[in-house]
Amino acid sequence: MVEKEKVKLCAENIAKSIHMVNKGENVFIRGGLYSRDLLEEIGLCIFRKGGIPFISYTSDTYINTIYQDPSIEVKTIELTPQHHLNLIKHIDAYIVIEPLEDPSINANAPREKVDAVQKSRTAIREVLYGFKEEYAPGKKWCYAAWPSKKAAEYYKIDYELYEKFIVDGMSIPSERMNEITTHLGRFFDNAKKVYVSDDNGTDFWVSIENRKKILDDGVISDEQIELGDLGGNLPAGEVFFPPQEKLGEGRLFCPLTKDRISDKIIKNVDLSFKDGKLEMDQVSADTNLEDLVASFKYCEDLDKKSGVPEIRTYNVAELGIGCNPEITKAIGYILTDEKINGSVHVAFGFNSSFGGTSKSQMHWDFVTAPKVNITIEYLDGTKKQIMEQGSLIS
Questions:
Q1: 55 has which bridge partners?
Q2: Residues 163, 230 within the same domain
Q3: Which partner from 69, 135, 352, 389 sits 20 to 30 angstroms from 252, CA to CA?
Q4: CA distance 261 to 321
């Protein structure tokens, strides 16, 4: 149970993250029943800032019943909830707290029902992220983690450490996080290519030439809004870029991740990409590889049906460098894993919401172990190693 004062502090940081400017902004707040205290504190913070909150709860029991009750049909689940869609069209900002107290509910659900939920949200994402011109640039948003003992058990981590990663990681003042990300970000000024390697076999490069860096300090800045980057995750703590989507190649080893759709834990993922595109026939993993492949293929099908200009399901979408000092190891939960100090992650899929050119229902970050080496090639042709074994080189 998170202490009351820490709940209030996290609520303040979450409310602050969406950068409310105008009085009367409509903010939709959604989460699981287990996080009720946090959700209500966020709502109160929004009211105090002059906004109008609307809170929606759900429960693990309700979601699990949808998945397991045979009388609830897939064809019903996959329908877009029009009342939800219309609500999204009329809000200014969207805050989501991790809905499931127990992630195993999603992992143990029939795959066809999990896919159906993904399909039902396609039109909602198009509005939220501005995928279609009439909805651009989208809505301000924040997706935040919240700890539970059931989730800690699922990720096989001591609850106290899990709470520390999330609550302490989220409680770092944005001013302090801005200092950390600004310092790291300076190394990437005038960068052309970024080379990443580690002792696990990771060895790749991507191009960030003419792409703006984004400092994830936990608050959407005016510069990010101008760029079209209207949201973020909490805990914060990374410097990231939308790389050139058709450039870059090599190998990335991800020790631990969670399936983008089914929530199943996948261990020791080995990915290769060339010309910026993931080579699916060469992907390997020790567990649940079939779920990884199925999720990419399902999102590819959704992309084809939604009529995007070019299929980019498998193209590089993000290069990120983690720098949250409170988060020290991977557990399989992307909201904390991608912020690990000294790690790098590459995402595949969409990036149009933060300065890239790809639109997709897929966005999956794969995180290295936290002991990477980073070398930067600059526009003038010089190269400089900036990180060795996960530590910045002075």
A1: 29
A2: no
A3: 352
A4: 24
- Residues 129, 64 within the same domain: yes
For the cut 80, the answer to whether the pLDDT of residue 285 exceeds it is yes
Q: What is the structure's pLDDT at 72? A: 98
* CA pair distance 318, 349, nearest whole angstrom: 9
pLDDT tens, 309-350? 899 999 999 999 999 999 999 999 999 999 999 999 999 999
Q: Residue 52 has which token pair?
A: 């109008």
Burial of 12 (0-12, 13-18, 19+ CB in 10 A): middle
Q: Where are the alpha helices (DSSP H) in the chain?
A: 4-17, 36-48, 60-68, 74-77, 82-89, 104-107, 111-120, 122-128, 149-154, 159-163, 169-171, 174-185, 222-227, 289-306, 334-337
Rounded distance, CA 293 to CA 289, Å? Answer: 6
Q: Which two structure tokens, joined as six digits, stand for 322? A: 């983690």
Task: Note the pTM of the prediction, 2 decimals.
Answer: 0.94
Cis peptide preceding 242, ω within 30 of 0: no
What residues are paired with 231 via a beta bridge? 141
Cβ atoms of residues 261 and 114 within 8 Å: yes
Q: Do 211 and 338 sit in the same domain of this protein?
A: yes
> Which pLDDT belongs to residue 246?
98
Task: Provide the number of structural domains found in the chain.
Answer: 2
Where among 171, 190, 224 does a domain terminate?
A: 171
CA distance 55 to 93: 12
**Which run of H or E residues covers position 376?**
strand 373-378
**Residue 126 Rama label (left phi>0; alpha psi -120 to 50; beta):** alpha
> What is the DSSP code (8-state) at residue 326?
T
Please state, in angstroms and rounded to a whole number, the distance separating the CA atoms of residues 202 and 199: 7
Residue 51: partners with Cβ closer than 8 Å, 6 or more residues away: 20, 23, 24, 25, 26, 27, 92, 93
* Domain membership of residue 363 as a residue range: 175-392
- CA dihedral of 102, 301, 357, 231, whole degrees rounded to 10: -20
Bond into 235 cis (ω within 30): yes
Q: What is the pLDDT of residue 361?
A: 96
Residues 94-115 have a mean pLDDT of 97
Q: Round to whole Å and give the CA distance between 361 and 317.
A: 12
Here the tokens at position 168 are 């302490």
Determine the Cα–Cα distance for residues 171 and 3; give it in Å rounded to an integer.
Answer: 13
Nearest to 314, CA basis, from 360, 354, 264: 360
